[in-house]
Design brief:
heterotrimer; A mainly alpha; B alpha/beta; C mainly alpha; A: mainly alpha; B: 4-stranded antiparallel beta sheet; 10 helices
């Protein structure tokens, strides 16, 4: 290695900022996943409704989002929507809206596959004990579907958490933005980026381990 | 036929696309009776059962439960499909046990039994739990109430499914080849539970290939052939005096069984 | 009808060279990344599937680390890090290196999954007729794994194209940054974001079509 003297004091001095930034990223990811799940579920039902006027627009939305770079979407919503007369969103709201729309498209596909994979016998058994259509969804189809799709939901949460790094592009002080700022102020390149990487990695791994435990707990479906 | 007629089927027709599966079924089930449908696969037994519980809709004819048409009401001489709510209410009065058990995989044995009690009959949780416990005990599974379906054997799952159906205190209980998916050594435990139920006076309509059980438990046996009722009568008559060639050849397959 | 400055089509015509340069940067960085990551990812994936314990553990570590860090962080780290060690590479190449490192991890994992989905009996049958390991791979295992590999590989390709937008953060004038520079001149924000979006749609649709064609081409590989 070329002469580089590590000076970790820059990290300890800024540990509070790193922690806050990490928390912010996690919060943005969880919030967007929650909204995205609601959106995705509605879209999945629309796709499976058998009504073309519902299914096709949703299909268009999903394909469009999946082919559009997230960064472009972030800029478009943050800079573009005000041009269209939609003012009043701050950068946080704008980013959550973007990431939710993004997550919604992915969750739509997850839920669609999940709903389609539920054996129709479960629905028949639910009919046979006299449950009404919405009760069949609420008490049988949805609980089973959520358990089936839990691994995909966790993967999406981890992906979304990594995607919050793009919020740096509109100056939201999450981990990547914070790291970049400290880097610019101190030039401690290695320390700063190693720390940021390690924090992302540790959080992703921790989330994964945590979610595996949740999955195992609900693994009543074999 | 003795007693009050609970289920009446008149000229029930059902087609899947081009294939007519039911070609005018007439059948009565009286209160407290056990009626068995026998016949080769494809003869329409299961389809008829599914029509009774509205899992399929019959195309013509009528099915009456307690004198009330199932799935339809007549309006100015035309059949009109009932609302989903009304259909659900009718289904709640008819229990059904399936070949593949169809237990809800995300619920324990107890919760499987409780779901209909709380959500359909509106019973409070505590009462539903008590009823579930009672019926799980009746099928010999009280100790397994907290188990999930995947933790139970096929026979145990089917007994839970029976408890789930009976706990709703249905007027009529349908059994659709409930032992066909079971390993041979697990069949007896399920049949024992069914026999117990029959003896307690539960009205039952069943499709089965367990001929000895059919012979011993049924009050009335219906032999179906190619979508029609080919012969019907008390078991002694069906098994002792098979009129048609087809019934003879169908029973011939079980010949070894009856020699016992 | 005469086009005036301020009309979208007029401005689009004015911006044609900038946008074209952006498209070239996007497509070339994507192509280079896909090429490099397919080569490196295949090798790494084989290590994951067949390597000795130590090699396998190292490969696993690489894959899991690279998949746990956001691509943007990888890009920034590579860009600043290389400069720090006096390795003077243009931002474009720093970006391609970072993107390739990321995509390599994905391709490796895909290949491992595909190879392991080939029934074990195939390897044994290939051994039984006396093929050596490279032959078993080339003639028996990889052709069968290919079909399983295609869909996720195409997906990685789409991710790479979308990921090239992140190069704008380190100053590479790819399609997104080129569009933004155009907007800075004419303020047609909506029009040019939509234009850029349409270009990405076309590029990604082309890749998806290519993937579908390849899948059809190899659809005879069933097992």
């Amino acid at each position: 290695m070329i002469d580089y003297h590590f000076d970790w004091s820059v990290i300890s001095r800024n540990s509070g900022r790193f922690a806050e930034a990490l928390g912010l990223g996690l919060g943005l990811a969880v919030l967007s996943l929650a909204i995205g799940c609601a959106l995705g579920l509605a879209c999945a039902y629309a796709r499976l409704s058998g009504k073309p006027w519902l299914a096709w627009p949703v299909r268009g939305y999903v394909e469009l989002i999946r082919c559009t770079p997230l960064l472009l979407l972030i800029f478009f919503i943050y800079f573009g929507l005000p041009e269209l007369g939609l003012y009043g969103m701050d950068k946080f709201q704008s980013f959550v809206l973007t990431l939710s729309l993004y997550a919604g498209a992915y969750m739509c596909e997850v839920f669609r596959a999940g709903l389609a994979s539920i054996p129709k016998q479960y629905v028949e058994a639910a009919k046979a004990i006299g449950l009404r259509p919405w009760q069949r969804q609420r008490w049988v189809v949805l609980p089973v579907m959520i358990r089936i799709t839990l691994p995909s939901i966790s993967n999406n949460l981890i992906s979304l958490f990594k995607d919050t790094s793009l919020a740096a592009a509109i100056a939201i002080p999450e981990l990547t933005f914070t790291a970049r700022q400290i880097n610019a102020n101190t030039f401690r390149v290695m320390e700063v980026w190693l720390t940021a990487s390690a924090l992302y990695l540790a959080t992703a791994w921790l989330l994964a381990a945590l979610l595996r435990r949740v999955e195992r707990r609900y693994a009543s479906i074999r | 036929m003795a007693g009050n007629v609970l289920l009446q089927a008149r000229k029930v027709h059902k087609s899947f696309g081009e294939t007519e599966v039911l070609k005018g079924i007439d059948l009565d089930v009286a209160q407290g009776q056990v009626v068995s449908l026998i016949g080769a696969s494809g003869s329409g037994k299961t389809t008829f059962l599914r029509c009774v519980n509205l899992l399929e809709e019959h195309d013509a004819g009528e099915i009456l439960l307690d004198g009330e048409p199932v799935g339809y009401r007549m309006e100015g001489g035309r059949r009109k499909r009932l609302s989903e709510a009304a259909i659900s209410a009718q289904r709640a009065r008819i229990g059904m046990v399936f070949q593949q058990f169809n237990l809800f995989p995300h619920l324990t044995a107890e919760e499987n039994v409780m779901l209909g009690l709380t959500r359909v009959l509106g019973k409070p949780k505590a009462e539903a739990r008590e009823i579930a416990g009672h019926w799980l005990a009746r099928v010999g599974l009280e100790a397994r109430r907290g188990h999930y379906p995947y933790q139970l054997s096929g026979g145990q799952q089917q007994r839970v499914a029976i408890a789930r159906a009976v706990a709703m205190q249905p007027r009529l209980l349908l059994f659709d080849e409930v032992t066909s998916a079971l390993d041979p050594e697990l069949v007896a435990e399920v049949l024992a539970v069914m026999q117990q139920l029959a003896e307690s006076g539960q009205t039952m309509l069943l499709v089965s290939h367990e001929m000895l059980f059919v012979r011993d438990v049924s009050h009335h046996v219906v032999f179906m052939d190619q979508g029609r009722v080919a012969q019907a009568g008390p078991p002694a008559e069906i098994f002792g005096n098979p009129e048609s060639e087809r019934l003879r050849s169908f029973l011939g397959r079980f010949h070894g069984l009856f020699a016992l | 009808m005469d086009l005036q400055p301020g009309d979208f089509l007029f401005e689009l015509w004015q911006a044609r060279f900038s946008l074209w340069a952006g498209i070239v940067a996007t497509v070339s960085s994507s192509a280079l990344t896909i090429l490099a990551s397919t080569l490196c990812g295949t090798l790494l994936g084989l290590v994951l599937a067949y390597g000795g314990p130590i090699a396998r553990a190292l490969a696993r570590l690489y894959v899991d680390v690279l998949r746990g860090i956001p691509v943007l962080v990888l890009i920034l780290f590579t860009y600043y890090g290389l400069a720090l060690f006096g390795i003077n590479v243009p931002a474009f190449w720093a970006g391609v290196i970072a993107l390739s490192a990321f995509a390599t991890a994905h391709v490796a994992e895909t290949l491992r999954g595909a190879v392991e989905s080939v029934p074990a009996g195939q390897m044994e049958a290939a051994k039984a007729i006396g093929l050596r390991f490279p032959q078993r791979l080339r003639d028996v295992i990889l052709p069968q794994a290919l079909r399983r590999m295609l869909p996720p590989w195409v997906n990685t390709g789409l991710e790479v194209v979308k990921g090239t937008t992140l190069l704008s953060v380190i100053g590479v004038v790819e399609l997104l940054l080129a569009s933004q520079q155009v907007m800075a001149r004419n303020y047609l924000i909506i029009d040019f974001y939509l234009t850029a979006g349409a270009f990405y749609l076309v590029i990604n649709a082309a890749i998806a079509q290519l993937g579908a064609a390849l899948e059809r081409r190899f659809s005879y590989l069933r097992y």
